[in-house]
Amino acid sequence: MRTILIHGGAVLTMNGWADVGYVFVEGERITAVSPGSPPPTLIAQADNIISAQHCAIIPGLVNAHTHLSQTFMRGLAGGRPLLPWLRELIWPLQGALTPDDMRLAALLGLVENLRGGVTQVVDHHKITATPAHTDAVCEAAAAVGLRVTLARAWTDKGANAEPVEVILADLERLFEQRRGSDRLQIASGPLALWRCSADTLRRSHELARKHGSFTHFHVAESQEEVRLSLEETGLTPVRWLHEIDLLSADTQVVHAVWVDDAEIELLAQNGAPVIHCPVSNGMLGSGIAPVAAMLRQGVPIRLGTDGPASNDTQDVWETMKTAVTIARASALDATVLPPAAALNLALSAAALVPGAPADIIVVNLNHPRAMPVHDVASALTLSTHGSDVETAIVGGQILLRNQQIMGLDETALLAACRQAVSQLRQRVGIH
Ligand SMILES: [Zn+2]
After folding, report:
1. 193 and 105 co-located in one domain
2. Do 103 and 184 belong together in one domain?
3. Distance (Å) from CA 18 to ligand 1 centroid
């Protein structure tokens, strides 16, 4: 069985931080976590030894909301608000992507996430013109090796609507194809609620639940969206979801920027997780989600970068620090989201523990931006960039080592992406 020993760094254990400690991995799982130096017997057993001096050894990060297709649309927001940005740029570009463009865009986005210490990504996948477009993302996920949830987007009203039976059949096809995979999961990904009918929302959610999965949707991202929801249903988005019985621990509410106190209460009562994407909300001028109030009420919160077209990076560290600063600024309260709590919103597990899947990252803290490290959680949350991640391991497999992507030619990937984007711009007429 393949073994890995990581030693010499600060380790996040179930008893808190060990200033210097080690982690031992056998096969896909962690088998030992301890303060101090590893015993000679463990060193002798290790196939791979990773020195983590002046580094932090922690669980991998989760990027709980992105759109991998948008890596090809990075940098194009150009000061537009959400709906004009979608109509003028994002939808025409998405419509012109070929399955091979989609594969390259997904590879690029996954490599970017991996380099930043993300071991688990939720891709809200919008490019569903053909099954080949969706399969291209699955192929890219397998090539990079991250844990990926593909939330298959759909809408059954308005522009780009699909017939209900097509949506359900494609979801069923994907669930069946990926059954038993521990790295790739499928979820239902309705787009904005004002473009989805209650009946199809319920049916797709039931289907996801049948396969042990969940629903992942944009909710109350902009004021315009709340207005459209009131027009369509007479209710604000979260109230409407509650009304149609679609708020629960397995419905992930992405954004929740425009929610009032009663809606926050509904989210908390139903245990519906909110995926907070503060950089994207700021970039599109959508607003600031009331995170301090959500935390007070006990709403579960995870962090997402959102797609590169509205961020423009997929750096979860940047998202983490932004979440801290704007939550404090908007609540006029410097005690909101202390560093360790903010870090917890992004970690794939609260600590490294024996028996858990070996999803581990090693983050360099030996640089001027982090020095001196009085408090490891502060150094990680407030001083770290994605480029400080040295090593990333998923399920006991080393995917990034000494900042080198393993098993994939990154230079060739960047060249292929450059060429594909140039051809895409010509097809759509963006000069
Ligand atoms: Zn999004």
Report:
1. yes
2. yes
3. 37
